[in-house]
Amino acid sequence: MTFRFGDREIAVEPGQSIGAALLAAGYRSWRTTRHDGAPRGIFCGIGVCFDCLVTVNGRPNQRACVTEAHPGDRVEPQEGTGHAGLAC
Amino acid sequence: MPASPADATYDIAVLGAGPAGLAAAAAAGRGGAHVVLLDGGPRVGGQFWRHRQGDSGRGHRHWSTVERLRAAVPDFRPGQAVWHVERTGNGFTVHTATNTLACRKMIIATGAYDRQLPFPGWTLPGVFTAGGAQALLKGHGVTAGRRVVVAGTGPFLLPVATGLAHAGAQVVGVFEAGAPTAFARHPRVLAANPGKLAEGAWYAAALARHRIPFRTRHAVIAADGEGEVEAVTVARVDSQWRIVPGSARRIACDTLAVGYGFTPQLEIPLQLGCAAELGLDGSLIACADERQRSSVPGVYLAGEVCGVGGAELSLVEGELAGLHAAGVTPDRRLVRRRATLRAFAAALHATYPVQSGWQEWLAEDTQVCRCEEVSAGAIRRTITELGASDPRSVKLLARPGMGLCQGRVCGHAVACLTGEPTAAALQGIATRPIAQPVTLGSLAPHPTLEEK
């Protein structure tokens, strides 16, 4: 079972979160902050801190650590608010 | 439209399916109540019994208890994070992202998460909360890193370190800022809890087996690296956690797992107006009486929300809350067991206090609020230049706690930086009218569980 992250296929086991699968694939960060553009990845791992945000199937601000991955999901790293595509 | 409490389907709704919530739901059901158990996660177990789909239970403590309790709760609803609870005429309306349900009584068992102290570099990828590293391992089968440092305070650091080592990570060291030998000042408590002593000895042996150095009165005071953690700085600290000059050394690692005790998850009790106080560990806790009742009629509390005390105490408090809520008088032995376990928890809190010296670890530009990227300097200026005297004013002036996590991570630190944290100060930043992220679509009327 895999999901797509950027242009890579990431292997994921049933019930595993997107964040855990990204970590297992060697990624440490996949989001940049709104002000400093600093890299962030998983911190709390249980849905409390909102550091590990990703865009899943076009929906920004999903917590990678608690969002279970589904086969065929399209996951993108998130820059800032994740709303750059809205052109506002 | 929300269901009216007059035709409430449930006698009791239990919030949180960790040890406390599971025990509460099972006991209330046994007492004849019509019970629903809700949890935001996909499975029962909470943080303590966090497990993977199809998990055999090997590697979990007291797994048979989970299986027994799970079987005793027919109506468990996963994926139901509660964002708001309303008080109605004779009960409560509980709102989740996809459902609304009514109940006459509630048992709140929403648990706790890692308490954090900021330090230079703690926002770098590769720094995890101790609980986060544990959750990745238990819930997803992933080790947080290859070369790991574990740091903070409290006995929870031990299962995190040994768990990572067992899974194949190289644990470079465990750095405990406190002095666990202080526990020897509580001989009677120890004698009454022989199982806990054996547990401590088991972890000490596991650390030795994996050749993991355990250093007390040592703290990670900084992390550094280019885009991710490449090393941490460890220093010896005095009894107030001030850095001992000349003791700092750099240790190469790719991962740091850090935690300084726990913060109870109090959104729902505070929404409902339940009285709260400062716990023995300095965290804000909801006040429970001898029957596990909160100050609000019909609302019961169990587990970490009414004082962090571990899974075993949570199970006992949950069972007591469930029985009382169902109108059953519990066995006296259960009440005595709670007293014994609470005495143990109190001794732990006395042994592992968070001391204020950590504030000296911060540089002016060290971020305290990770979400809004607010530095220690910016927070201090609201106090010295703008006259802020409580954390809520600091929040309004400099924005710490205004980001996505709503101060869950930085709240304790912001309160400490503003002065000696009081219950009122902590409550000022812990009160959140919306407990979970919710979409506008969820705020529009949606079908009740019964209608579905």
Structure description:
The complex is a heterodimer of chains A (88) and B (452). Helices cover 8% and strands 31% of the residues of chain A. The longest helix of chain A has 7 residues, at 18-24. Chain A has 88 residues and is mainly beta. Chain A has a single domain, classed as 2Fe-2S iron-sulphur cluster binding domain, sarcosine oxidase, alpha subunit, N-terminal domain (Ubiquitin-like (UB roll)). Chain A has one helix at residues 18-24; strands at residues 2-5, 8-11, 31-32, 39-40, 53-56, 59-63, 74-79. In chain A, β5 (53-56) and β6 (59-63) form a beta hairpin. In chain A, strands 1, 2, 3, 4, 5, 6 and 7 form a 7-stranded mixed beta sheet that branches. Chain B starts with 9 loop residues before the first strand and ends in a 9-residue tail after the last helix. The model of chain B is unreliable at 1-7 (pLDDT under 50). The longest helix of chain B is centred in the last third of the chain and has 20 residues, at 332-351. In chain B, α1 packs parallel to α8, α3 (130-140) crosses α4 (157-166) and α10 (376-384) crosses α11. Chain B contains 14 helices and 21 strands. Chain B is an alpha/beta fold. In chain B, the strands form 6 sheets. In chain B, strands 1, 2, 3, 4, 5, 6 and 19 form a 7-stranded mixed beta sheet that branches. Classes of the chains: A mainly beta (88), B alpha/beta (452). At the A-B interface, α1 and β4 of A face β8 and α3 of B.
